[in-house]
Amino acid sequence: MTSSSASPLSSAWLAAMPILFVALWSTGFIGAKFGLPYAEPFTFLFVRFVLTLALLVPLVQLLGGGWPRGARLWGHIAVSGLLVHGAYLGGVFYGIYQGMPAGLASLLVGLQPLLTAVLAGPLLDERLAPRQWLGLALGLAGITLVLGGKLDPGDGLFQGFGIGALASVVVALVGISLGTLYQKRHCVGMPLLSGTVVQYLGAGVVLGLGALLFEERHIDWTPTFALTLGWLVLVLSIAAILLLMALIKRGEASRVASLFYLVPPVTALEAWILFDERLPLPALAGMAIAIAGVVLVVKGRAPDSETPDARRT
């Protein structure tokens, strides 16, 4: 192939990489919906982390880049992993396991930039710009519309799920927000690939303990579960991280961060097609308003705070 024919192809691939990355990320919620009928959430995640680590450790050795330096940094990275993988994924999977729609779970945790911006003030001494305050107000108004559209006037608090599912996803939202700030403050210089290994180790130990204490640890190894687990391990936890590394290396990280707000509507569309999950019109309007709020908050942040990390796997 000549250089003239390779150049347009290369340019098209570079343009598609951020969109592909976000599209892959959105399927994490769909994978949870597919796999949770066959395994309890903490057991599901523990097996996923074990398989992911079995593949990531050789990749670190193969691709190089080194390991985090010093026991102190290892400890900080493990704590960040407990928050951004353990609390986040554990809360999302448990909420979906308890009946929360995948699209709604995606939207709720997609408010992470809003909560992170609020917490960054007292924790990192960062001030919000007026546009960010407007984004926060829009986000709160939007999520109020979404949850109001899911209220069940009958027995349950919400249609199809209860307060436990909502609380677990709120834990996920708080966990990923605190974890993002903790990582920014204490994990400077963390190698992405080997740092992710340490994060998975920290989160996996806690999730394994949760499975041991609170679950029966039974897995129904159906073809659907095996394929779902393979997708989450190979595509999300491995391929998506390698894609993220390539984007960061090429200076496309901020572009990926700006596209993260597309994950909730993409997830909602996938959930509607695959599971017939439907949101009423007020909830759809609320989703659009909430996403607009997230966009305002993200666009008002400093460029260095827009760099995505490997937290949403």
From TrEMBL:
Keywords: Membrane, Transmembrane, Transmembrane helix. It is a multi-pass membrane protein. It is found in: Membrane. It comes from the Bacteria. Residues 19-147, 168-298 form the EamA domain. Coiled coil: none annotated. InterPro entries: AA-Vitamin_Transporters (IPR050638), EamA_dom (IPR000620), EmrE-like (IPR037185). The chain crosses the membrane at residues 12-36, 42-61, 73-96, 102-121, 157-180, 192-213, 225-247, 259-275, 281-298. Belongs to the EamA transporter family. This is DMT family transporter. It comes from Halomonas kalidii.
